[in-house]
Amino acid sequence: MSITYRTACKADLPAINGVIERAVMTWRLPERVKRLSLPLYRYSETDLGHLEVWVVEADSGIAGLASWEPAEAADLPEGKSGLLLHGLYVDPDRQHRGIGSQLLSASQARARELGLDGVLIKAQADAEPFFQRRGLERLPVRDESRDYALRYWHRA
To answer: In terms of pTM, does the model score above 0.90?
Structure first.
């Protein structure tokens, strides 16, 4: 299997959103919740202007993607700077092949390139074991009215 990592472009959006849809539909949530929330996860051309989006091409198709943006200081561990991992999705038919790990490493490398301390992850419940297996630090909830419960920190 030939794998290429690259920055996403507008022409990738249909394939990117296909990967996102297939991934979201595997989540252990009621079908109605998945259908109603799916539009919020899809990427648009506007998103490509605000987020850094990387795709993985495998066998001439998009197998996964990750996107990140600068994180808000209030969300980060005290005194740290970092990126917010906005999304990490791997096509369900191509999971467990290291693609997600490579995308996570790419976000970490990008944080280092920018001179930042790490990457903040707000994990979806079904993805939490993926981040736990990689030894990421789970952040405590400091403010229940503001903090996302499943936050992880990945040092750059």
So the answer is: yes
Please choose, from the candidates 6, 5, 3, 146, the residue with its C-alpha nearest in 3D space to the C-alpha of residue 76: 146
Domain 3-155: which CATH class?
alpha beta
The residue with tokens 């297939």 is 22
SS3 percent helix, strand, coil of the chain, rounded to 5, is: 40, 30, 35
**Among 83, 142, 91, which Cα is nearest to 109's?**
83
Token couple for 34: 């998945």
Residue ranges in the chain assigned as alpha helix (H): 13-24, 31-41, 45-50, 99-113, 128-133
pLDDT digit string, tens, across residues 123-150: 999 999 999 999 999 999 988 888 889 9
Amino acid at 100: G
The ranges assigned to domains in the chain are 3-155
Place of tokens 């191509």: 94
